[in-house]
Amino acid sequence: QVQLVESGGGLVQAGGSLRLSCAASGLTFSRCVMGWFRRAPGKEREFVATIAMSGGRTYYADSTKGRFTISRDNAKNTVYLQMNSLKPEDTAVYYCAADIGKTYYRTISTRESEYDYWGQGTQVTVSS
Predict the structure, then answer these.
(1) How many Å apart are CA 99 and CA 118, to the nearest integer?
(2) Euclidean distance between the first and final Cα of the chain, in Å?
(3) pLDDT exceeds cutoff 90 at 45
(4) Model pLDDT for residues 17-43, shown as the tens digit of each residue
(5) Where on the phi/psi map is residue 112: left (φ > 0), alpha (ψ -120 to 50), or beta?
(6) 3-state class (DSSP) for residue 28
């Protein structure tokens, strides 16, 4: 049974930082492309960041580039999202996701449809 469990969300003031974690089980984590998405109130879920299975390639949404950093520890089956310089518009439920369909170690995935498994989400609220 595949499980993705996010943690680290919470309430933070604008300009602050949070670090999200996503612990994976039930899959071969080192062969998964991992991603973070978010859904703000009243909006569609959107792509935030992705990291290749090797960890050697990352890609970010324009809205998060330069402020967020995705990383992974394949020994711990965990992917992280370090969020700095947070803005009120970053308020959302953040989801991690696993894409098990890729084979090339540097492949990334930016579309929801590419991902096979999703976590339940963790709330991030940024106050102004």
Answers:
(1) 9
(2) 40
(3) yes
(4) 999 999 999 999 999 999 999 999 999
(5) alpha
(6) coil
Structure token pair of residue 57: 């390639």
For 28-34, the CB contacts below 8 A with 24+ separation are 28/100, 29/74, 29/77, 29/98, 30/74, 31/100, 32/98, 32/99, 32/100, 33/98, 33/99, 33/102, 33/107, 33/108, 33/109, 33/114, 34/70, 34/72, 34/79, 34/96, 34/97, 34/98, 34/99
Dihedral over Cα of 87, 85, 80, 58: its sign: positive
Q: How far apart are CA 48 and CA 50, in angstroms?
A: 7
What pLDDT does residue 43 have?
96
Average pLDDT over residues 52-80: 97
pLDDT tens digits, one per residue of 1-20: 999 999 999 999 999 999 99
**Per-residue tokens: 19:** 């670090």
